[in-house]
Design a protein that fits this description.
Chain lengths: 383, 265
């Protein structure tokens, strides 16, 4: 492509006058973008060679001048004037005069309103990052506070809750997620049972595969895997939905109508998640155990009855209830962070994308942190 | 042509008192003060980036002011008294630039939402009111359309129907004619004037469409970015012909702020 731009009618630069005195440059041909480098080097060479005391540029032979050519002329004039050499253009053809007026001399020298976007030295960046983290923490805490207040209000005045929306989001986050949660949990159960059976077989402890899987699934993997899947499916969707509403001024419209956006937009999503995540967790536990059952029956010569009996014997209500409490807390974190990131959106489409990613990452981080906290709490409570 | 100036003997409906808006280091405007009388159509105008929309968002309580305050019917728009705020918000309607309709709701649900939330009327009554509001903006029959199924101009009119749902005494418009064809824009102007004449609604309109300004405004205030505030206010025709301020005269006469450049520069 670059080759195609090379000269059609190369410009010619002729010079008249005495060195160090009054000098005339006669420019002719096409003074255009494709010849710009050639033109400038030619003009510069003549300029340096003649060292004029006064410069007249004759444009009468110019066949064509575009804005790049006009810019080159202007730069020549600027250079001459900066060295105190008077410079003038004479006999510009009519077609060239218009384009020369278009190039604004003043604008070329105006500095940009925002000079280089400086991201600062590493220490400044670290400081900025720390401040951003603190601000973020404060915003999340404030939001969760407002959300909990909203939840309390919802308990005291259940009629003010938009139950229709709650049902809609229960379907979106719960029912629509059944296939993927079921499939992942089933495969997870299958893998864990298979891997553990390889070890336990060596000791003739096949039967303990059932207990290992049941306890692992119900106490840890079920709630965690379900929460991560819901964060990926629904937390991100909540952030994107509210973020887009923010961009479209819909959230502003709600505020000017006097509605609390948290009660209106966030609360139904959080309530829906609080209802469906524990249910999905139970469902995931069931499918995980079924995955283990397949391995038990097909690979370990256990009967389905023995496997299920062993599973039942190793689980108690005190294993299931805390795991559901955990799932409920995870739900508040996932939906809460999803909504908060959505409300944080400022600007356009890119900000919505960032909010969506951030909602998933922050939710998974908080799920793991909360899970560690639960592990400690349950340990000291002896559960 | 605009209607006669309303009677200004009563207390003003909106008082903007030494309002300052600053974002970080960037001061948008400083110590802006003005009043809007009952039944008046005030147009806020100025070039792009002068802070018109920011001023509007302060006036409806979307942005907390850096300094100063905005009172509507004597109540601060940032009041923390929930009951006061509720009454204040019920009394105002805002038409956003894009219409800001809720994408997941039909037009009827959009318009019906404020009525549903603020009253205990039966669904049939709400439906009737919604139909009335939609026909007011020439959208009768579009009750069950989703926002994505109608044009930009229709979205704006539907947004207006929603803003009118609770018969507000004050209406705010953010660039009502932006992106509309000349006919839709003229229709909207007629609608604005008839709402003002028939219902006595006080209106604050942010725009830079000259035709709209001359057609609807009782009074204009002009903001300027470099002055960080109001540089002129009054009757638009007076300002067009008699303003001593070059920026104002240029704006109304559609003249660029820089004249033609000298030859060969």
């Amino acid at each position: 492509m670059k080759k195609a731009l090379r000269s059609q009618t190369a410009p010619t630069v002729r010079v008249a006058g005495e060195k160090g005195r009054e000098v005339s440059l006669f420019l002719a041909g096409r003074l255009a973008l494709e010849n710009l480098s050639f033109l400038r080097s030619q003009v510069q060479a003549r300029f340096n060679e003649m060292v004029p005391a006064r410069l007249t540029v004759d444009l009468s032979g110019v066949e064509y001048l575009d804005s790049a050519g006009a810019l080159a002329l202007l730069q020549l004039k600027n250079q001459a004037q900066s060295q105190g050499i008077p410079c003038q253009f004479v006999k510009p053809p009519d077609t060239a005069r218009g384009i020369m007026e278009l190039v604004e001399r003043q604008a070329l020298g105006t500095p940009p309103l925002i000079t280089v976007r400086d991201s600062g030295n590493p220490v400044e960046q670290l400081g900025e990052g720390a401040l951003k983290f603190c601000r973020d923490l404060m915003e999340v805490t404030t939001f969760l506070g407002a959300l909990l207040r909203g939840l309390l209000d919802a308990c005291l005045h259940p009629r003010t809750v938009r139950w229709q929306d709650v049902a809609f989001y229960m379907k979106r986050a719960g029912t629509d997620g059944l296939p993927i949660v079921g499939l992942i949990s089933f495969l997870l159960g299958l893998i864990i049972a298979f891997m553990s059976s390889l070890q336990l077989k060596q000791f003739g402890a096949n039967i303990y595969v059932a207990s290992l899987l049941a306890i692992g699934m119900v106490k840890e993997l079920g709630p965690i895997m379900t929460a991560i899947l819901v964060a990926g499916r629904s937390g991100s969707a909540f952030a994107a939905e509210i973020g887009t509403m923010k961009v479209n001024e819909e959230v502003d419209a709600l505020v000017t109508m006097g509605f609390d956006p948290i009660r209106f937009l966030a609360l139904p999503k959080v309530l829906a998640a609080m209802i469906v995540v524990p249910l999905l967790t139970l469902y995931a536990d069931l499918f995980g155990i079924m995955g283990g059952l397949v391995v038990g029956v097909m690979g370990l010569d256990l009967t389905a009855y023995t496997y299920l009996k062993e599973t039942q014997a190793s689980l108690s209500l005190m294993d299931i209830v805390p795991s559901l409490i955990k799932a409920g807390v995870f739900a508040v974190l996932i939906a809460g962070i999803g909504c908060q990131r959505g409300f944080q959106v400022r600007g356009g489409a890119e900000a919505v994308g960032t909010a969506t990613t951030s909602a998933v990452v922050a939710a998974i981080f908080l799920i793991i942190v909360a899970d560690s906290a639960f592990a400690l709490i349950f340990h000291y409570l002896g559960i | 042509m605009g209607a006669n100036l309303p009677n200004s003997a009563q207390a003003p409906v909106i008082v903007v008192d030494r309002l300052t808006a600053r974002f970080g280091q960037d001061t948008i405007f400083e110590k802006v003060s003005f009043e809007v009388q009952r039944g008046e159509i005030l147009v806020v105008l100025g070039g792009s980036g002068c802070g018109k929309s920011t001023l509007l968002k302060h006036m409806v309580g979307l942005y907390p002011p850096t300094a100063g305050r905005v009172l509507i019917n004597g109540v601060d728009v940032m009041t923390e008294n929930e009951e006061e705020l509720r009454r204040l918000k019920m009394g105002i309607g805002v038409l956003f630039q894009s219409g800001a309709l809720f994408g997941s709701m039909t037009l009827a649900e959009n318009v019906g939402l404020p009525i549903q939330e603020y009253t205990d009327l039966s669904q049939e009554t709400i439906d009737l009111i919604v139909r009335m509001k939609l026909s007011l903006v020439n959208l009768a029959g579009y009750e069950n359309h989703l926002p994505e199924e109608i044009s930009g101009g229709m979205k704006k009119r539907a947004g207006l129907a929603r803003a009118l749902a609770l018969d507000p005494t004050v209406l705010f418009f953010d660039e009502p004619s932006a992106g509309l064809d000349p006919i839709s824009s003229a229709e909207l102007d007629i609608l604005i004037k008839s709402l003002n004449a028939d219902l006595g609604t006080t209106m604050v309109i942010v725009t830079h469409e000259l035709e709209s300004i001359f057609s609807v405004a009782h009074r204009v205030i002009m903001l300027d970015r470099s002055a960080r505030g109001i540089i002129a206010q009054g009757d638009p025709r007076q300002l067009k012909d008699h303003s001593p301020d070059l920026r104002v005269a240029n704006f109304f006469n559609r003249l660029p702020s820089t004249g033609p450049k000298p030859e060969g520069s």
